[in-house]
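Example 3.2
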Amino acid sequence: MKSNSSIFLFSPSPRFNKAALSNFETFDKENSCLLYSSLIINHKEVINSVSRIGRVIYCFDSNDKELIPPGFKSEVAKIFYGEMENVNDTIKFLSDKYFNESDSNLIIFSNSIGIKPSDIQKVFKLLTIDDDSIVIGKTNNEKVAFIGFKIFNKVLFSQIKWDGMNFDYFLAKVNKFDYFVYVLDGYMYLDSIPDFRNLYHELSKKESLAYCSQKMHERFTHLFIEYKELLK
């Protein structure tokens, strides 16, 4: 029996293992880990606040296996560990085990932020319109924050990039197929210092509480204080 919907939070490389992760720009290992893990934990909070989720799969690099904070597993949430360097093998496993078992699927990229519970609900609502629907989350720096789909397209997914994918690049790949394409925008993807600076400005707005709790604001504030010179 198919579950109504599945959400996949996809981390394309180590995010909790300080020794294995790649630094974020000029950040040191400690603060790179704090930034990456905060983005993931923030997504977890948002996902947990969405009602009637069919299933949640957190996809982490195997280097993070012993370092995931408690609370990620639950009755509806599972954790998958893979060799993210071999991303095509990972996607094949996910498609064989999960994608085809759900009516609708949503992949959220872990370096994104700004996705609200209402956005997730909207994605799944749009996906009910037609089996050939695809929903793309576009960020303000022209990256892809998430992809919503019903039917797994092996050819399309074998061509996409899983870390900081350019929106126009992905849209061009999608347009080769007969999809109903929906684009939701206004999200963020952290890939550079200007993105970090933009995060600082966006989190200073009251509206950010819709996708980032006060507790998460405090985690990010530590980074803003640590790297205040970069915010000028």
